[in-house]
Write a structure and sequence with these properties.
The chain is an alpha/beta fold. The chain has one domain: 3-Layer(aba) Sandwich (Rossmann fold), CATH 3.40.50.720. The protein is 44% helix and 16% strand. It has a 7-stranded parallel sheet with strand order 3-2-1-4-5-6-7, sandwiched between helices. α1 runs parallel beside α2 (41-53) and α1 crosses α7 (220-231). The longest helix has 29 residues, at 106-134. The radius of gyration is 17 Å and the shape is globular. The chain starts with 8 loop residues before the first strand and ends in a 7-residue tail after the last strand.
C-alpha cells in the first residue's frame, strides 16, 4: 500500500477541524504529503502550516464536500500538485442540533444528510475512481459510535452516521479483489468543538447525551492513530471494518 521509496499522498477532508487536523498531522508523521480540504479556508491553511512544520508537504484547499464540482476540483488539485492519492481520510462532517425527533427541523436534517452522507458518497466516488486506475489505496471514513446506536435528540446526526457505515461496507465490497481498502473509524465523544457544541445544547435542554462507560472524552489523536493504522500496510487485510474508538462506551 505504501511505497517506502515514494512518500504517500494523503487527502483529508474536514482537515481544519480538531479530528481532521490530528489526522493530517499523524499522516505527516508517516511522511505523507497532505492535502487539507475544509469549508473554512483559514482553518485549512492553519493545518497546512502545521503539516509543513512537521516536515511534510501540504496543500490547503477551500471546498464544500457536498458539492460534486468542488469534490472533483479538490481531487484533481491534490493529484496535480502532490501526486496520486494513496490515502483518503473522508472525515468532513457536521453535528446539527440537539432536539427531539418530533421537533427536529427539516432543514437541519436535510443539511446533515447533504454534508455527512452525500459528502462522504462524493468523496468515495471520485477518489475510488482514481484509485481503481492504479489498483491500490486506503480509505477511512469518519463515522461515529452514533452509527451503531441511537441517541436521543440527535436524529439527523445518528441517521447520517448510520449511512456512513453503510456506504463504507458497500464501497468495501465494490473494491473487493483489488488492493483498495475502505474502512470506517467510529469515535465516541472526543474533546473537540463539535462535542462541546452538542453538550452545550444538551445542557440547555432536558435531553441528556448519556455515556455508559467511565471513560472521559477521547483525544483527537486517539482517532488519528487508528486512521493511520488503517491507512498503513499493517492493515492490508482489513476491509469493510468499523473500528470503534470510545474508551469502552459501547462495550456494555
Amino acid at each position: 500500500m505504501i511505497d517506502k521509496n515514494r512518500p504517500p499522498v494523503a487527502l483529508v477532508t474536514g482537515g481544519g477541524g480538531d479530528i481532521g487536523r490530528a489526522i493530517a498531522l499523524r499522516l505527516a508523521r508517516m511522511s505523507a504529503a497532505v492535502a487539507i480540504v475544509d469549508r473554512d479556508e483559514a482553518a485549512a491553511n492553519a493545518t497546512a502550516r502545521l503539516v509543513e512544520q512537521a516536515g511534510a508537504r501540504a496543500l490547503a484547499i477551500r471546498a464544500d464536500v457536498s458539492i460534486a464540482r468542488d469534490t472533483v476540483a479538490f481531487v484533481e488539485a491534490t493529484e496535480a500538485r502532490l501526486g496520486p492519492i494513496g490515502i483518503f481520510a473522508n472525515n468532513a462532517g457536521i453535528e446539527g442540533i440537539v432536539a427531539p425527533l418530533h421537533e427536529y427541523p427539516d432543514e437541519t436534517f436535510d443539511q446533515l444528510l447533504q454534508v455527512n452522507v452525500k459528502g462522504v458518497f462524493l468523496g468515495l466516488k471520485h477518489v475510488i475512481a482514481r484509485m481503481m486506475q492504479r489498483g491500490t489505496g486506503a480509505i477511512v471514513n469518519t463515522a461515529s459510535t452514533s452509527a451503531i446506536r441511537g441517541r436521543a435528540g440527535l436524529a439527523g446526526y445518528v441517521a447520517s452516521k448510520h449511512a456512513v457505515l453503510g456506504l463504507t461496507r458497500t464501497a468495501a465490497l465494490d473494491v473487493a479483489g483489488t488492493k483498495i481498502r475502505v474502512n470506517a473509524v467510529l469515535p465516541g465523544p472526543v474533546e473537540s468543538r463539535m462535542i462541546r457544541e452538542l453538550e452545550g445544547q444538551a445542557r440547555k435542554s432536558d435531553i441528556a447525551l448519556r455515556r455508559s462507560a467511565p471513560a472521559a472524552h477521547g483525544r483527537p489523536q486517539d482517532v488519528a492513530n487508528i486512521v493511520a493504522f488503517l491507512a498503513s500496510d499493517e492493515a492490508a487485510h482489513v476491509n469493510g471494518a468499523a473500528w470503534v474508538v470510545d474508551g469502552g462506551m459501547t462495550a456494555g
